Structures are given as C-alpha cells and as structure tokens.
Amino acid sequence: MAEDPLSHPALDKAAGEEFLREAFQIILEEAVRKGTDVTEKVCDWREPQDLQKILDLELRSSGEPQQRVLEHCQDVIRYSVKTCHPRFFNQLFSGLDPHALVGRMITETLNTSLYTYEIAPVFVLMEEVVLKKLRELIGWGSGDGIFCPGGSLSNIYAMNVARYQRFPDSKQTGIWALPRLAVFTSQECHYSVQKGAAFLGIGTDNIYLVGVDERGKMIPADLEKQINKAKSEGACPFFVNATCGTTVLGAFDPLADVADVCVRHGAWFHVDAAWGGSALLSRRHRHLLRGIERADSVAWNPHKMLMTGLQCSAFLLRENSGLLQRCHCANATYLFQTDKFYDVAYDTGDKTIQCGRKVDCLKLWLMWKANGTEGLEKRVDRAFEFTRYLAEEIKKREGFQLVIEPEFINLCFWFVPPSLRGKEGCADYWERLGKVAPAIKERMMKKGSMMVGYQPLGSKVNFFRQVVTNPVVTKQDLDFFLDEIERLGTDL
Q: Is the overall model pTM greater than 0.85, yes or no?
C-alpha cells in the first residue's frame, strides 16, 4: 500500500534549521560586520543591465540546492546598498541598532498580525505602552494612536480622521455631501500631503500652500491669509499641516503660532514630526517643537533618527474618545466578534484601514529597554553635535558654502570647485554649479566610498544635504566625507 504523504510533514525541519544557521552566519558576516565596516564599500555599483546579468533572478519550476540558495543570499547582500555603513549619509535613516535588529528578527519569526488580542496578545499590550510613552513626550496625558506603514500614511490618516471628525456622515455618504474642503500646508511640506489629498478625493487643487521664511518655516500670517482666501472662495478650511523637520532644510514650523490660527478658524491641527519628532527625547533640543502639545494629531517616525529600522511610524491622537476607531472601523464579524471571552477593547485592528498589520512596536520597545530614555537622548544629542562639528569644519574650508545655518541635523551646502571660485558674477555660474553635486554623487557611488543626497530647492541649484544619525560615525568619518567631496570634485 502506497505511503500517505499527508501523514508526514512536508518540510524537513532539520535541513531547515541547518539552512537558518548558515544563513544567519552570512547575515552576521556580510550584512552586519562588513556592512558596518568603514574599510568596506558603501555600495558595489552596477548598472541595471549589468546587475540583471550578475543576479540569477529567474524563478524556475524546480527548487535549487541549499548551497546555491545561500549564494543568492550573499549576492543580495553584496550588491545592496549598506545603509548601516558609517559613511552612508544618503537618507534620513541609517545605522544598525542590534537590539532593534533582534526585535525585527523576532517579529518576522513569530509572523503575527496586530489586529486582535487573541492572535497578538503580547504586541497589543506592548504597542499601547510604546504609544503612551510617545504621547507623554509630546505632552499629552491621554490619547490614542496606532503604528502605520510609514509617515506618509500617518499624514493621510490625520487628514482622513480630521475630515471624519468634522463631517462624520461622510463615511457613509462620501464626498458628494461635503462642501469643498481646503487643506493648508507649507511650501516645504512632505509630498504625502499632496498624495493624501488626491487619495482621499479632496483634490490637490484644494491644497493652499502657505509661504515660508528664509529658513523654510511656515509664516503664520500667511496661513491666516490663505485661510481667509479659501473662505472667500467658498471652501471649508478643515485641516492644517505643520512640519517639524522639513525633508531638505530641516525646518521647524512655529507650532504655537500655527495652533493659534487653527483655534481661530476651527481647523484640525496636525504636526508632521516624522523626521523631527525624536528631538523631543532631548532636553537640550526639544524646544524646537514647542507648542506640539496643542496639536490634534502627530506623525512621528522612530525609524529615522532613533534608528529602529524600517519601518516604525506612529500616528498619535490627542483625544481618546474612540475617534480613530469610529473613523476606520468596518466591524468585520470574522475578526472582531463582540461575544469573545475576553475584553474586546484590546482588539485594536479596526483603528486602521489595514487588515493584516505588521508588528512595528517590538524593535522600538526592545531598543528602548536596552538603551533607556537617557541612552536615546544621548543618541539624539550626538547627532546634533556632529552636525555642528561639520558645519564649523565647512566654514574653514575653501570651496565649501553653507546653504543655510543648520537648525536641526540637516546640513545643506554647495561644493564650489576651483574652476568656479571667484566667478559668482558670471551669467552661467549657477547653472554650472548646479551640475557639480550630481557629478560628485556619480563618482562617489561608482567608487563606493560613501553616499550623500543632493537636490535643488526653489531657486537654489543642486546642493548636498548631509545627515548623521548613525552613532558609530566618528569625526574621522566626517573629515573623510569633506576630503572625499573635495577629491571627487576638484577637477570639475
């Protein structure tokens, strides 16, 4: 009689464990050790067509031997950008916290979804503890919140909750029963505000961009002007977005003054502190967010400055009346039964527009447990100190020019090669200077020595934006950074 295949496991557990041991060794050696080793390359650049040839990306009908699969793991790591490298300055995130990494590994291993207490009891309780701690740092004694897949979605949640709070019937009747809604945000805001207005059916034409000063901060008087303009045009001003830590310049809007305007006009006050929120951990620098406690909602990304790893984004509400739940719930009876044997208030999944939701709190919780609030504060303060060090070094060097004196940890500057020095009066000076940063960026990536971002801003031509969040970075790395910019750009 033929053996019944269903009588035995379909996976070889012993072989699986052996594969994991070997794979974890590759991760530790190639991604962790080499990926954080200053003597190794930040990236091993290949053009897309060349990388396609190097990587065996084809999916076949038959499985491959374990050794070949392990080789794939090595190739993936080798040709990926090492964002944990001490000389990776390209994004608003970098570095590797070992405790957060373990949290991420446990999260992946347990593979649960954070929607009900029955399936994720530890993480339902843990998430609320972490969110409560973040709210306390803002200055709220109570409130609500949820972890979201990214700061963009946190901002979109804020817009949706604000609309529901003002027009609760819109959840059933839709946008047809609403007046023309108006959103207000600064010219330097994150692009997710535009995406949110489009996604929610408000429309990008109904975003009123508020002017900013020379440092990129929202001008409250212009906010008042734009709101009055919207009212005169028959629109309903319902949502104001202020930013703490703009993406390029790192500007902080004057929150207390913006809050005053919102109160006068009855508008929801949201603060996008995805980037700058972690300054709240620093007694020395939390003044940058003075007035944030008056916000109705806040977006905050610990995966940026605190280095928890992607992704870890909190959407926080000041009120705790259940607004978030009422706005997003669908009451699916196959998940959120009302006759469960435990307190269903712990079934938090209907606060989100998601069904399945990854656990994003463990890595932050574990990192916080290991470092304490004081340790995280030192991490924040160190980032500020490095920015100040680099700014002072730039002032000493010929050919380096600050775009603006840094308020936060965004350091923006031009490198002026010898061929352009003293030629500021030439008609093509700025056009030629705008080509310098992209050329240097190409050279550094092909060399693999480091990575840093660049961009234009308004009338300003391309300039570098350097950000240090990685605590393993040293002054020697920053000196190398400036030397390398000079080496790569001197002949341009």
A: yes
